[in-house]
Amino acid sequence: MPRPILATVHTPALAHNLQRMKSAAPDAKVWAIVKANAYGHGIERAFAGLKGADGFALLEIDEAKRLRALDWRGPILLLEGCFEARDLEACSRLGLWHVVHCTEQIDMLAAHKTTALHRVFLKMNSGMNRLGFQPERYRAAWTRLNAMPQVEDITLMTHFSDADTAKGILAQHEIFNSVTHDLPGERSLSNSAASLRHGHALSAASDWIRPGIAVYGSAPDFPDHSAADWGLQPTMTLASKIIAVQAINTGATVGYGSAFTATQPMRIGVVACGYADGYPRHCPTGTPVLADGVRCQLVGRVSMDMVTVDLGPAPQAGMGSDVTLWGKSASGALLPIDDVASAAGTVAYELMCALAQRVPVLTAD
To answer: Where do you find CATH 3.20.20.10 in the chain?
Structure first.
């Protein structure tokens, strides 16, 4: 039989979370963010759950082609825009909208010969300091684009750096408004955290929201809120089975480097999952897992192909028992991916995106 590790993508949960984000901004249109192969879920697997979106946003033209192959005829937005001039030809051919965040991209568009008009999202750097025009240069960029025969429509855009923290969005929002208050065009401001935490303040300001991580069942502001607090459901489960059990005595050690020492007699379950499957190597002793639906914890170091689990809370678990590394167990018990990510000192994005190719993936309707 094949090795018992399996990832499951839950299509109904994707649809539920998308609807939850729509309810957070009922007057706005919604981009479903599917960059990084739909946050590791797979664009083709996620599509059925997300096709209720008003558009899809991503980074790669090849990913846009995959969406068109799924017969998606609605808007597709390139979130980082075009990387070279010939990308504009693909935008014209595939009907892609694209972000413009620097002068070089405007220059490429000005030189582009096309009969297909382009819809662009002009990005302001209101404080994130990654992509976008500085506020004092934004209107000049807008004026230049607005005069181009290649450009059909300009949407005004920024990205909040602290929507998930107590610092909030006020300062950046004020900068954006001070520059754009009299410019025509739709606005796109809010990611997951801004939509959920500040939707009331942005209800009249966002024509398009851009939810990413919340659509995939993770709280954008964990640990301030959990996914359940926001009414989100897990969209990915990583599960395996116990392939061996070791009974050890007080003083015995577990795993490489003898990193864990038993303080009492223990039953240790060996689980077919390791860092070669995308499970974080730096998950420490204490990282939660479910054994037969019961919350247990990792002990010792994560190996390439195996992790070891203290089965004390689950005495009924043994050889062949189900283990949930994150997501929903067969019994219905939940292990939020945010709990695992927090224990590993990272975020749920990384766990989802790091799922290894060798892990088989099943879609559950």
So the answer is: 11-216
Q: What pLDDT is attached to residue 209?
A: 95
pLDDT on residue 204: 62
CA distances from 103 to 108, 112, 132, 234 (A): 9, 14, 10, 40
At 151, give phi and psi (nearest 5°).
-105, 125
Report whether pLDDT(317) > 90: yes
Q: Please tell me which residue in 22, 35, 123, 241 is annotated as part of the active site.
A: 35
Type of residue found at 177: N
- Residue 256 a catalytic site member: yes
Annotated catalytic residue: which of 22, 29, 39, 256? 256
| Nearest-angstrom CA–CA distance, 145 and 140 | 9
Mean of pLDDT values over 272-289: 97
Q: Decide if 290 contacts 329 (C-beta within 8 A).
A: yes
229 φ/ψ angles, rounded to the nearest 5 degrees: -55, -40
235-274 burial, b for 16+ CB within 10 Å, e for fewer?
A: bbbbbbbbbeeeebeeeeebbeeeebebeeebbbbbbbbb
The identity of residue 267, as a single letter, is: R
Of 34-48, 150-164, 187-201, 246-260, least confident by mean pLDDT is: 187-201
Is 241 a residue of the active site? no
CATH class of 11-216: alpha beta
Mean pLDDT of the chain, nearest integer: 96
Q: Summarize pLDDT for 70-99 with one digit per residue, the tens.
A: 999 999 999 999 999 999 999 999 999 999
- 304: pLDDT strictly greater than 80: yes
**Fold for the domain defined by 236-364:** Lyase, Ornithine Decarboxylase; Chain A, domain 1 (2.40.37)
